[in-house]
């Protein structure tokens, strides 16, 4: 075994000594470059893909999680100023389960787990303080799960009872919120937070819950305005919701025709928030000749008897008293009176006009191209049908076609393309350099083998060569020029191959590494 090693060593030294000084330098430099290239490629190919394990962490949670990762000897990275932790993608799900079983992340607060360890000898005051501390922590964790809320802090002040009414103090609570970027909470969300806290604390009224954000805005003022009868916030929210709904519907419709990000839609709705009670009476003509009898009153009268009528000759003679015989007559009379009242046909309607009726609607659409009159009219008709256009209330629809200013978007896209091109170019150059170095080593090795075999055959035949120094230098120069020319040709071919098929070359190198 030792003899074989010595023989190989002698053959290598003999082969190495046959090379000129320049060839030795080229071989050495090429070997170093190839070795470094392989190291870089191995490091790049074996580098893990990191993804976010947790984000928006408190300093306490971040420290506890990193300590657990160090104990498990898991590589990690810290981002976002220490609030995010990244781990290899292949381990993220298992790590989340393992850390969750240990109560991490805890949100930077202490919940009811504070009572998991019973402290012997603690006073009632300490128990009460720990209870409200745990309650505040649990409320903080719950509120942090709400949409648009990235951080929350809850402080609870318990009520103070007293036999004197003026000395009793009600329970109070304060909530500090950090909202996601460009996000706001609606009045309904603020009310839900106030009710959530009030329902969790004994004798706490929602009016005694103060809610603010990190910008110093008093969010609970919206609830106070509602209690005072100021519905401006609700009216504005209703208006924005109606406009947003119409804009979304128009975006869905126009995207299929004009393309994505090729137009802008804006809707402005004027709403009437006055509530009115309307009562109307409508009189209609009587149906038929007699109509509907409302009431009828009939009065009948009948008389029957005799009457005495005086008789005599007109004049003085008839004035002289004397006994005369009266004339008697039979008499009868009847009368009838009838009063009929007919019903008047009357219709009475009473209804309430609700708040938020649309008084006027304006829609504006800008398209990123020049439109003809016919195209504008077609788009206008489609929008009119979609939004319920009403000319009687003064609705207006505007369609304008003009190219958009794409300078900012183009600059951003160009910068991204340049970064991507630079990244791909560096990768191609690295792969091409490695392939060129490997090819050069293979070529030099083949040449050295052929040269060594020729020298060995001459030695076996007992032929001695004595070459002049000038002739040897000329032969070496000629050999190097041929090697340089072949190396350049191979470099060009490998570079062209790397540029045309980079993915295939990268996959080939990975397969070589896997085989090794």
TrEMBL record:
Secretion signal, residue range per the UniProt entry: none
Residue stretches in coiled coil: none
Annotated spans, Disordered: 281-337, 451-502
Topology of the protein relative to the lipid bilayer: Multi-pass membrane protein
Span of domain Flagellar M-ring N-terminal: 46-220
Spans traversing the lipid bilayer: 25-45, 427-445
Positions with biased composition (Basic and acidic residues): 291-302, 484-498
GO biological processes: bacterial-type flagellum-dependent cell motility
Family designation: Belongs to the FliF family.
Family matches, as PANTHER family: FLAGELLAR M-RING PROTEIN
Protein name: Flagellar M-ring protein
């Amino acid at each position: 075994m030792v003899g074989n090693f010595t023989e190989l060593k002698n053959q290598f030294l003999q082969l190495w000594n046959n090379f000129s000084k320049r060839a030795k330098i080229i071989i050495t430099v090429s070997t170093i470059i190839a070795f470094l290239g392989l190291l870089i490629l191995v490091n790049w190919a074996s580098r893990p893909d990191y993804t976010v394990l947790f984000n928006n962490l408190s300093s306490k949670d971040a420290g506890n999680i990193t300590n657990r990762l160090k104990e498990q000897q898991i590589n990690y990275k810290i981002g976002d100023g220490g609030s995010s932790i990244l781990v290899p993608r292949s381990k993220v799900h298992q790590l989340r389960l393992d850390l969750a079983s240990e109560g991490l992340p805890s949100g930077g607060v202490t919940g009811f787990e504070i009572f998991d360890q019973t402290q012997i000898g603690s006073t009632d005051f300490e128990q009460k303080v720990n209870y409200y501390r745990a309650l505040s922590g649990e409320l903080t964790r719950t509120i942090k799960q709400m949409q648009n809320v990235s951080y929350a802090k809850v402080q609870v002040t318990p009520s103070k009872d007293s036999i004197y009414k003026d000395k009793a103090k009600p329970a109070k609570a304060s909530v500090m919120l950090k909202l996601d970027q460009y996000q706001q909470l609606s009045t309904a969300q603020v009310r839900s937070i106030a009710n959530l806290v009030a329902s969790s604390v004994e004798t706490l009224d929602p009016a005694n819950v103060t809610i603010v954000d990190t910008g110093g805005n008093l969010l609970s003022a919206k609830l106070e305005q509602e209690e005072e009868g100021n519905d401006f916030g609700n009216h504005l929210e209703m208006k924005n919701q109606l406009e947003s709904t119409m804009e979304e519907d128009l975006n869905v419709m126009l995207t299929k025709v004009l393309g994505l990000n090729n137009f802008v839609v804006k809707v402005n709705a004027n709403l009437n928030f006055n509530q009115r009670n309307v009562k109307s009476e409508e009189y209609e003509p009587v149906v038929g000749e007699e109509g509907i009898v409302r009431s009828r009153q009939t009065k009948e009268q009948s008389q029957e008897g005799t009457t005495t009528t005086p008789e005599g000759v007109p004049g003085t003679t008839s004035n002289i008293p004397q006994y005369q015989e009266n004339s008697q007559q039979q008499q009868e009379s009847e009368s009838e009176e009838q009063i009929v009242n007919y019903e008047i046909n009357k219709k009475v309607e009473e209804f309430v006009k609700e708040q938020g009726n649309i008084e006027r609607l304006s829609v504006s659409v800008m398209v990123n191209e020049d439109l003809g009159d016919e195209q504008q009219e077609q788009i206008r008709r489609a929008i009119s049908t979609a939004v319920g256009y009403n000319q009687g209330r003064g609705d207006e629809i505007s369609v304008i076609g003009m190219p958009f200013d794409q300078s900012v978007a183009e600059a951003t896209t160009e910068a991204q393309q340049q970064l991507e091109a630079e990244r791909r170019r560096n990768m191609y150059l690295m792969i091409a350099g490695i392939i060129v170095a490997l090819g050069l080593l293979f070529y030099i090795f083949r040449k050295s083998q052929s040269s060594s075999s020729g020298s060995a055959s001459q030695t076996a035949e007992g032929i001695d060569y004595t070459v002049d120094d000038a002739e040897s230098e000329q032969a070496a120069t000629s050999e190097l020029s041929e090697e340089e020319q072949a190396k350049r040709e191979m470099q060009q071919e490998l570079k062209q191959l790397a540029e045309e098929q980079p993915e295939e070359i990268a996959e080939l190198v990975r397969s070589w590494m896997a085989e090794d």
